[in-house]
Design brief:
Elements lengths: L36 H13 L4 H9 L3 H14 L5 E7 L5 H12 L1 H4 L3 E7 L3 H11 L7 E2 L5 E6 L5 E5 L10 E6 L8 E6 L2 E9 L7 E5 L18 E4 L1 H17 L1 E10 L8 E4 L2 E3 L9 E3 L2 E2 H7 L5 E7 H7 L2 H11 L3 H15 L1 H5 L2 E7 L1 H13 L19
Parallel strand pairs: 1-2, 1-6, 2-5, 6-11, 11-15
Antiparallel strand pairs: 3-4, 4-5, 7-8, 7-10, 8-9, 11-17, 12-13, 12-14, 16-17
Bound molecules: S-adenosylmethionine.
S-adenosylmethionine binds next to helix 4.
Length: 409
Protein backbone atom coordinates (compact mmCIF):
# COMPACT_ATOMS: atom_id res chain seq x y z
CA UNK A 1 0.00 0.00 0.00
CA UNK A 2 2.50 2.61 1.16
CA UNK A 3 5.04 2.92 -1.57
CA UNK A 4 3.69 0.13 -3.58
CA UNK A 5 1.18 0.32 -6.33
CA UNK A 6 1.08 -2.37 -8.91
CA UNK A 7 -0.70 -4.32 -11.57
CA UNK A 8 -1.44 -1.74 -14.14
CA UNK A 9 -0.44 1.25 -12.05
CA UNK A 10 3.11 0.90 -10.85
CA UNK A 11 5.21 -1.28 -8.58
CA UNK A 12 7.82 0.01 -6.21
CA UNK A 13 8.65 -2.88 -3.87
CA UNK A 14 12.34 -3.64 -3.84
CA UNK A 15 14.21 -0.38 -3.92
CA UNK A 16 16.07 0.76 -6.93
CA UNK A 17 18.49 3.57 -6.27
CA UNK A 18 19.09 5.57 -9.39
CA UNK A 19 19.76 9.09 -10.35
CA UNK A 20 16.92 10.28 -12.55
CA UNK A 21 16.89 13.23 -14.89
CA UNK A 22 15.66 16.40 -13.30
CA UNK A 23 12.61 17.88 -15.02
CA UNK A 24 12.13 20.77 -12.63
CA UNK A 25 13.82 24.01 -13.69
CA UNK A 26 14.75 24.93 -10.13
CA UNK A 27 13.95 28.55 -11.05
CA UNK A 28 10.49 28.60 -9.56
CA UNK A 29 9.66 31.63 -7.40
CA UNK A 30 10.65 31.31 -3.73
CA UNK A 31 7.04 31.33 -2.50
CA UNK A 32 6.35 28.16 -4.50
CA UNK A 33 9.19 26.50 -2.61
CA UNK A 34 7.64 26.84 0.83
CA UNK A 35 9.15 24.25 3.22
CA UNK A 36 6.19 22.34 4.61
CA UNK A 37 6.59 19.44 7.08
CA UNK A 38 5.58 17.12 4.23
CA UNK A 39 8.35 18.56 2.02
CA UNK A 40 10.85 17.96 4.80
CA UNK A 41 9.61 14.39 5.17
CA UNK A 42 9.85 13.75 1.42
CA UNK A 43 13.33 15.33 1.18
CA UNK A 44 14.48 13.06 3.96
CA UNK A 45 12.95 10.02 2.32
CA UNK A 46 14.49 10.79 -1.09
CA UNK A 47 17.90 11.50 0.44
CA UNK A 48 17.75 8.15 2.24
CA UNK A 49 16.57 5.89 -0.53
CA UNK A 50 16.63 7.75 -3.84
CA UNK A 51 13.95 9.34 -6.03
CA UNK A 52 10.40 8.11 -5.57
CA UNK A 53 7.78 7.32 -8.21
CA UNK A 54 5.07 9.87 -8.99
CA UNK A 55 2.54 7.37 -7.60
CA UNK A 56 4.47 7.27 -4.34
CA UNK A 57 4.71 11.05 -4.26
CA UNK A 58 0.97 11.42 -4.77
CA UNK A 59 0.12 8.95 -2.05
CA UNK A 60 2.58 10.50 0.39
CA UNK A 61 1.22 13.97 -0.20
CA UNK A 62 -2.40 12.99 -0.37
CA UNK A 63 -3.35 10.56 2.25
CA UNK A 64 -0.27 8.62 3.34
CA UNK A 65 -2.33 5.59 4.31
CA UNK A 66 0.75 4.08 5.95
CA UNK A 67 0.06 6.49 8.80
CA UNK A 68 -3.27 4.71 9.26
CA UNK A 69 -1.32 1.50 9.98
CA UNK A 70 0.41 3.27 12.87
CA UNK A 71 -3.02 4.29 14.11
CA UNK A 72 -4.20 0.66 13.78
CA UNK A 73 -1.42 -0.58 16.08
CA UNK A 74 -2.02 2.14 18.65
CA UNK A 75 -5.74 1.36 18.53
CA UNK A 76 -5.07 -2.36 19.15
CA UNK A 77 -2.61 -1.53 21.93
CA UNK A 78 -5.29 0.59 23.61
CA UNK A 79 -8.08 -1.94 23.08
CA UNK A 80 -6.02 -4.73 24.57
CA UNK A 81 -5.20 -2.94 27.80
CA UNK A 82 -2.32 -0.49 27.12
CA UNK A 83 0.54 -2.79 28.08
CA UNK A 84 3.59 -1.05 29.58
CA UNK A 85 5.80 -2.31 26.74
CA UNK A 86 5.49 -3.75 23.24
CA UNK A 87 7.62 -4.81 20.33
CA UNK A 88 6.81 -3.64 16.81
CA UNK A 89 7.96 -6.44 14.51
CA UNK A 90 7.99 -5.95 10.74
CA UNK A 91 8.52 -8.90 8.41
CA UNK A 92 10.32 -7.91 5.19
CA UNK A 93 10.54 -4.15 5.75
CA UNK A 94 11.84 -3.30 2.23
CA UNK A 95 13.20 0.20 2.51
CA UNK A 96 11.96 0.62 6.06
CA UNK A 97 9.57 3.40 5.07
CA UNK A 98 6.48 1.80 6.62
CA UNK A 99 8.11 1.34 10.01
CA UNK A 100 9.43 4.90 9.63
CA UNK A 101 5.88 6.17 9.05
CA UNK A 102 4.57 4.14 11.97
CA UNK A 103 7.27 5.50 14.30
CA UNK A 104 6.32 9.02 13.23
CA UNK A 105 2.72 8.27 14.22
CA UNK A 106 3.96 6.91 17.56
CA UNK A 107 5.88 10.17 18.07
CA UNK A 108 2.81 12.23 17.16
CA UNK A 109 0.82 10.22 19.69
CA UNK A 110 3.58 10.68 22.26
CA UNK A 111 1.18 11.74 24.99
CA UNK A 112 -0.76 8.46 24.61
CA UNK A 113 2.32 6.25 24.44
CA UNK A 114 4.59 8.21 26.78
CA UNK A 115 4.83 5.51 29.46
CA UNK A 116 5.15 2.65 27.00
CA UNK A 117 8.49 1.03 26.33
CA UNK A 118 8.62 0.40 22.56
CA UNK A 119 11.25 -1.51 20.60
CA UNK A 120 11.42 -2.26 16.86
CA UNK A 121 12.41 -5.67 15.47
CA UNK A 122 12.95 -6.14 11.75
CA UNK A 123 13.06 -9.53 10.05
CA UNK A 124 15.04 -9.12 6.84
CA UNK A 125 17.08 -11.62 4.82
CA UNK A 126 18.64 -9.15 2.40
CA UNK A 127 21.86 -7.53 3.69
CA UNK A 128 21.49 -4.76 1.13
CA UNK A 129 17.96 -3.90 2.21
CA UNK A 130 18.85 -4.05 5.90
CA UNK A 131 21.45 -1.33 5.21
CA UNK A 132 18.78 0.80 3.53
CA UNK A 133 16.40 0.21 6.43
CA UNK A 134 19.11 1.37 8.84
CA UNK A 135 19.60 4.48 6.73
CA UNK A 136 15.87 5.21 6.78
CA UNK A 137 15.24 4.44 10.41
CA UNK A 138 18.24 4.99 12.62
CA UNK A 139 19.96 8.02 14.03
CA UNK A 140 23.09 8.42 11.94
CA UNK A 141 25.09 9.96 14.77
CA UNK A 142 24.81 6.73 16.77
CA UNK A 143 26.89 3.96 15.15
CA UNK A 144 25.18 0.68 14.30
CA UNK A 145 26.31 -2.46 16.13
CA UNK A 146 26.94 -5.32 13.71
CA UNK A 147 27.56 -8.98 14.35
CA UNK A 148 27.07 -11.17 11.28
CA UNK A 149 27.33 -14.37 13.35
CA UNK A 150 24.67 -13.37 15.87
CA UNK A 151 20.92 -14.00 15.56
CA UNK A 152 20.58 -10.23 16.02
CA UNK A 153 22.87 -9.23 13.18
CA UNK A 154 22.48 -5.48 13.52
CA UNK A 155 21.31 -3.00 16.17
CA UNK A 156 20.69 0.72 16.08
CA UNK A 157 18.57 3.45 17.63
CA UNK A 158 15.77 5.27 15.81
CA UNK A 159 15.71 9.05 15.47
CA UNK A 160 13.13 9.13 18.27
CA UNK A 161 15.34 6.99 20.54
CA UNK A 162 13.67 3.60 20.01
CA UNK A 163 15.99 0.55 19.82
CA UNK A 164 15.91 -1.20 16.43
CA UNK A 165 17.21 -4.77 15.94
CA UNK A 166 17.57 -6.92 12.82
CA UNK A 167 17.05 -10.70 12.48
CA UNK A 168 17.02 -13.12 9.58
CA UNK A 169 14.20 -15.24 10.98
CA UNK A 170 11.03 -14.49 12.94
CA UNK A 171 11.95 -17.35 15.32
CA UNK A 172 14.94 -15.28 16.52
CA UNK A 173 12.85 -12.26 17.58
CA UNK A 174 12.37 -12.21 21.39
CA UNK A 175 9.01 -13.70 22.41
CA UNK A 176 7.51 -10.61 24.05
CA UNK A 177 4.18 -8.82 23.71
CA UNK A 178 4.32 -7.79 20.07
CA UNK A 179 2.51 -6.19 17.19
CA UNK A 180 3.51 -7.77 13.89
CA UNK A 181 3.29 -6.20 10.45
CA UNK A 182 3.69 -8.03 7.15
CA UNK A 183 3.05 -5.66 4.26
CA UNK A 184 3.70 -7.06 0.78
CA UNK A 185 5.77 -9.73 2.46
CA UNK A 186 3.85 -12.99 1.97
CA UNK A 187 3.45 -12.46 -1.77
CA UNK A 188 7.21 -12.71 -2.34
CA UNK A 189 7.53 -16.06 -0.55
CA UNK A 190 8.03 -19.05 -2.89
CA UNK A 191 4.99 -21.07 -3.95
CA UNK A 192 4.55 -24.59 -5.29
CA UNK A 193 2.15 -24.81 -8.22
CA UNK A 194 -0.12 -27.78 -8.89
CA UNK A 195 -2.37 -28.75 -11.77
CA UNK A 196 -5.25 -31.18 -11.42
CA UNK A 197 -4.97 -34.03 -13.98
CA UNK A 198 -6.93 -37.25 -14.54
CA UNK A 199 -4.11 -38.96 -12.61
CA UNK A 200 -4.43 -36.59 -9.64
CA UNK A 201 -2.48 -33.46 -8.64
CA UNK A 202 0.75 -32.94 -10.56
CA UNK A 203 3.29 -30.29 -9.60
CA UNK A 204 4.31 -27.69 -12.19
CA UNK A 205 8.09 -27.78 -12.62
CA UNK A 206 10.55 -25.53 -14.45
CA UNK A 207 12.51 -27.43 -17.11
CA UNK A 208 14.90 -26.66 -19.96
CA UNK A 209 13.08 -26.21 -23.24
CA UNK A 210 14.63 -28.82 -25.57
CA UNK A 211 13.42 -26.97 -28.68
CA UNK A 212 15.04 -23.59 -28.04
CA UNK A 213 18.52 -22.97 -26.61
CA UNK A 214 18.82 -21.07 -23.32
CA UNK A 215 15.09 -21.17 -22.74
CA UNK A 216 13.08 -22.49 -19.82
CA UNK A 217 9.55 -23.90 -19.89
CA UNK A 218 6.95 -25.26 -17.51
CA UNK A 219 6.29 -29.02 -17.43
CA UNK A 220 4.17 -31.25 -15.20
CA UNK A 221 5.87 -33.71 -12.84
CA UNK A 222 5.30 -37.28 -14.08
CA UNK A 223 4.20 -38.48 -10.62
CA UNK A 224 3.11 -37.12 -7.23
CA UNK A 225 5.54 -34.81 -5.36
CA UNK A 226 5.85 -34.16 -1.58
CA UNK A 227 4.42 -30.62 -1.57
CA UNK A 228 1.06 -32.13 -2.62
CA UNK A 229 0.58 -32.66 1.14
CA UNK A 230 -0.22 -28.92 1.39
CA UNK A 231 -3.29 -29.19 -0.85
CA UNK A 232 -6.66 -29.53 0.90
CA UNK A 233 -8.41 -32.87 0.38
CA UNK A 234 -11.60 -31.12 -0.74
CA UNK A 235 -9.84 -28.60 -3.02
CA UNK A 236 -12.14 -27.69 -5.91
CA UNK A 237 -9.87 -25.55 -8.02
CA UNK A 238 -8.01 -27.25 -10.86
CA UNK A 239 -4.84 -25.24 -10.34
CA UNK A 240 -3.49 -24.21 -6.94
CA UNK A 241 -0.47 -22.44 -5.50
CA UNK A 242 0.68 -23.42 -2.01
CA UNK A 243 3.24 -21.60 0.09
CA UNK A 244 4.75 -23.79 2.81
CA UNK A 245 6.97 -20.93 4.07
CA UNK A 246 3.88 -18.81 4.67
CA UNK A 247 2.36 -21.67 6.65
CA UNK A 248 5.43 -21.91 8.90
CA UNK A 249 5.47 -18.16 9.54
CA UNK A 250 1.74 -18.03 10.31
CA UNK A 251 2.09 -20.92 12.75
CA UNK A 252 4.91 -19.08 14.51
CA UNK A 253 2.86 -15.85 14.63
CA UNK A 254 -0.21 -17.67 15.92
CA UNK A 255 1.78 -19.41 18.66
CA UNK A 256 3.37 -16.16 19.76
CA UNK A 257 0.14 -14.17 19.81
CA UNK A 258 -1.67 -16.96 21.68
CA UNK A 259 1.15 -17.05 24.23
CA UNK A 260 1.97 -13.39 24.82
CA UNK A 261 -0.86 -11.38 23.21
CA UNK A 262 -0.55 -8.62 20.65
CA UNK A 263 -1.73 -8.81 17.06
CA UNK A 264 -0.54 -9.35 13.49
CA UNK A 265 -1.64 -7.20 10.56
CA UNK A 266 -1.04 -8.75 7.16
CA UNK A 267 -1.58 -6.58 4.10
CA UNK A 268 -1.09 -7.98 0.64
CA UNK A 269 -2.38 -8.70 -2.83
CA UNK A 270 -4.41 -11.84 -2.41
CA UNK A 271 -7.65 -13.80 -2.39
CA UNK A 272 -9.65 -15.99 -0.07
CA UNK A 273 -8.96 -19.35 -1.69
CA UNK A 274 -10.60 -18.53 -5.01
CA UNK A 275 -7.81 -17.72 -7.48
CA UNK A 276 -5.69 -20.19 -9.41
CA UNK A 277 -2.67 -19.09 -11.45
CA UNK A 278 -1.35 -15.84 -9.93
CA UNK A 279 2.43 -16.34 -10.25
CA UNK A 280 3.72 -13.17 -11.96
CA UNK A 281 6.91 -11.28 -12.71
CA UNK A 282 7.29 -7.50 -12.60
CA UNK A 283 10.20 -5.63 -14.08
CA UNK A 284 10.41 -1.85 -14.22
CA UNK A 285 6.74 -1.68 -13.08
CA UNK A 286 5.66 -3.85 -16.03
CA UNK A 287 4.44 -7.44 -16.21
CA UNK A 288 7.32 -9.68 -17.18
CA UNK A 289 7.41 -13.34 -18.29
CA UNK A 290 8.52 -15.23 -15.16
CA UNK A 291 10.81 -17.58 -17.13
CA UNK A 292 12.56 -14.94 -19.21
CA UNK A 293 15.83 -13.39 -17.97
CA UNK A 294 15.50 -14.92 -14.48
CA UNK A 295 16.92 -12.69 -11.77
CA UNK A 296 15.88 -9.45 -13.44
CA UNK A 297 12.22 -9.34 -12.34
CA UNK A 298 10.43 -9.37 -8.97
CA UNK A 299 8.44 -12.61 -8.71
CA UNK A 300 5.20 -12.66 -6.77
CA UNK A 301 2.16 -14.87 -6.22
CA UNK A 302 -1.08 -13.63 -4.65
CA UNK A 303 -1.53 -14.60 -1.01
CA UNK A 304 -4.16 -17.27 -0.35
CA UNK A 305 -5.66 -15.92 2.89
CA UNK A 306 -7.80 -19.06 3.34
CA UNK A 307 -4.53 -20.99 3.63
CA UNK A 308 -3.14 -18.51 6.18
CA UNK A 309 -6.34 -18.83 8.21
CA UNK A 310 -6.04 -22.63 8.13
CA UNK A 311 -2.40 -22.49 9.17
CA UNK A 312 -3.29 -20.42 12.25
CA UNK A 313 -4.96 -23.69 13.34
CA UNK A 314 -7.49 -21.96 15.58
CA UNK A 315 -4.78 -20.89 18.04
CA UNK A 316 -5.79 -17.30 17.45
CA UNK A 317 -8.76 -15.53 15.90
CA UNK A 318 -8.42 -14.27 12.34
CA UNK A 319 -10.18 -11.31 10.76
CA UNK A 320 -10.50 -10.67 7.03
CA UNK A 321 -9.36 -10.57 4.40
CA UNK A 322 -11.08 -7.24 3.83
CA UNK A 323 -10.45 -5.22 0.72
CA UNK A 324 -8.29 -2.13 1.04
CA UNK A 325 -11.19 0.18 0.18
CA UNK A 326 -13.19 -1.24 3.10
CA UNK A 327 -10.24 -1.20 5.48
CA UNK A 328 -9.31 2.40 4.67
CA UNK A 329 -12.93 3.54 4.79
CA UNK A 330 -13.28 1.97 8.23
CA UNK A 331 -10.03 3.64 9.25
CA UNK A 332 -11.49 7.03 8.37
CA UNK A 333 -9.88 7.81 5.00
CA UNK A 334 -13.01 9.72 3.89
CA UNK A 335 -12.80 12.07 6.85
CA UNK A 336 -9.09 12.56 6.17
CA UNK A 337 -9.79 13.30 2.51
CA UNK A 338 -12.47 15.81 3.44
CA UNK A 339 -10.12 17.62 5.82
CA UNK A 340 -7.42 17.75 3.16
CA UNK A 341 -9.87 18.92 0.48
CA UNK A 342 -11.17 21.66 2.78
CA UNK A 343 -7.62 22.79 3.46
CA UNK A 344 -6.55 22.74 -0.20
CA UNK A 345 -6.84 26.15 -1.88
CA UNK A 346 -5.83 25.25 -5.40
CA UNK A 347 -7.97 23.25 -7.80
CA UNK A 348 -4.92 21.28 -8.94
CA UNK A 349 -4.23 20.12 -5.39
CA UNK A 350 -7.87 19.09 -4.95
CA UNK A 351 -7.62 17.12 -8.19
CA UNK A 352 -4.44 15.42 -7.01
CA UNK A 353 -6.13 14.48 -3.76
CA UNK A 354 -9.04 12.92 -5.59
CA UNK A 355 -6.70 11.06 -7.96
CA UNK A 356 -4.74 9.65 -5.03
CA UNK A 357 -7.95 8.62 -3.29
CA UNK A 358 -9.11 6.93 -6.48
CA UNK A 359 -5.86 5.00 -6.80
CA UNK A 360 -6.20 3.61 -3.28
CA UNK A 361 -9.96 3.02 -3.26
CA UNK A 362 -10.99 2.26 -6.86
CA UNK A 363 -11.83 -1.46 -7.19
CA UNK A 364 -10.04 -1.53 -10.57
CA UNK A 365 -6.84 -0.20 -8.97
CA UNK A 366 -5.81 -1.07 -5.43
CA UNK A 367 -9.24 -0.89 -3.78
CA UNK A 368 -10.13 -4.55 -4.24
CA UNK A 369 -6.86 -6.24 -5.04
CA UNK A 370 -5.07 -5.31 -1.88
CA UNK A 371 -6.36 -6.98 1.27
CA UNK A 372 -6.00 -6.78 5.03
CA UNK A 373 -6.00 -9.76 7.36
CA UNK A 374 -5.38 -9.86 11.11
CA UNK A 375 -4.53 -12.40 13.78
CA UNK A 376 -5.63 -11.59 17.32
CA UNK A 377 -5.88 -13.47 20.62
CA UNK A 378 -9.29 -15.14 20.96
CA UNK A 379 -10.04 -13.17 24.12
CA UNK A 380 -9.67 -9.89 22.21
CA UNK A 381 -12.73 -10.67 20.09
CA UNK A 382 -14.59 -12.75 22.62
CA UNK A 383 -14.18 -10.02 25.23
CA UNK A 384 -15.29 -7.42 22.73
CA UNK A 385 -18.58 -9.14 21.92
CA UNK A 386 -19.41 -9.63 25.59
CA UNK A 387 -18.61 -6.03 26.28
CA UNK A 388 -20.72 -4.94 23.33
CA UNK A 389 -23.79 -6.81 24.60
CA UNK A 390 -23.45 -5.33 28.03
CA UNK A 391 -22.90 -1.83 26.81
CA UNK A 392 -25.24 1.10 27.00
CA UNK A 393 -25.65 3.55 24.16
CA UNK A 394 -23.30 6.51 23.52
CA UNK A 395 -20.20 4.39 24.17
CA UNK A 396 -17.96 3.18 21.35
CA UNK A 397 -17.93 -0.51 20.48
CA UNK A 398 -14.66 -2.36 21.03
CA UNK A 399 -14.49 -3.38 17.40
CA UNK A 400 -11.20 -3.96 15.64
CA UNK A 401 -10.19 -0.89 13.67
CA UNK A 402 -10.29 -1.32 9.91
CA UNK A 403 -12.25 -4.57 10.06
CA UNK A 404 -15.34 -3.03 11.59
CA UNK A 405 -16.84 0.31 10.94
CA UNK A 406 -15.97 2.35 14.01
CA UNK A 407 -19.42 3.58 14.94
CA UNK A 408 -20.70 5.44 17.97
CA UNK A 409 -23.95 3.88 19.10
C1 LIG B 1 8.14 -6.45 -1.60
S1 LIG B 1 9.20 -6.08 -0.27
C2 LIG B 1 8.07 -5.39 0.90
C3 LIG B 1 8.58 -4.12 1.46
C4 LIG B 1 7.78 -3.44 2.59
N1 LIG B 1 7.16 -4.34 3.48
C5 LIG B 1 6.79 -2.48 2.01
O1 LIG B 1 5.62 -2.80 1.92
O2 LIG B 1 7.19 -1.38 1.63
C6 LIG B 1 9.54 -7.70 0.43
C7 LIG B 1 10.52 -7.67 1.60
O3 LIG B 1 10.60 -8.97 2.19
C8 LIG B 1 11.98 -9.34 2.32
N2 LIG B 1 12.00 -10.81 2.34
C9 LIG B 1 11.77 -11.65 1.32
N3 LIG B 1 11.81 -12.93 1.76
C10 LIG B 1 12.05 -12.89 3.09
C11 LIG B 1 12.17 -13.87 4.11
N4 LIG B 1 12.05 -15.15 3.85
N5 LIG B 1 12.41 -13.45 5.38
C12 LIG B 1 12.52 -12.13 5.67
N6 LIG B 1 12.41 -11.14 4.74
C13 LIG B 1 12.18 -11.52 3.47
C14 LIG B 1 12.63 -8.66 1.15
O4 LIG B 1 14.02 -8.59 1.26
C15 LIG B 1 11.94 -7.30 1.24
O5 LIG B 1 12.46 -6.52 2.27
Amino acid sequence: MNALVRRGVARAGIPCIWRGKCFSSGNEPAESRQVTPMLRHLMYKIKSTGPITVAEYMKEVLTNPAKLLGVWFVSEWMSSGKSSAFQLVELGPGRGTLTGDILRVFSQLGSVLKNCDISVHLVEVSPKLSELQALTLTEEKLPLERDADSLVYMKGVSKSGIPVSWYRDLKDVPKGYSFYLAHEFFDVLPVHKFQKTPQGWREVLVDIDPRVSDKLRFVLAPCATPAEAFIQHDERRDHVEVCPDAGIIIQELAQRIALTGGAALIADYGHDGTKTDTFRGFCGHQLHDVLIAPGTADLTADVDFSYLRRMAQGKVASLGPVEQRTFLKNMGIDVRLKVLLDKADEASVKQQLLRGYDMLMNPQKMGERFNFFALLPHQRLHGASQERNARQSKTPTSSVAGFDELVWQ
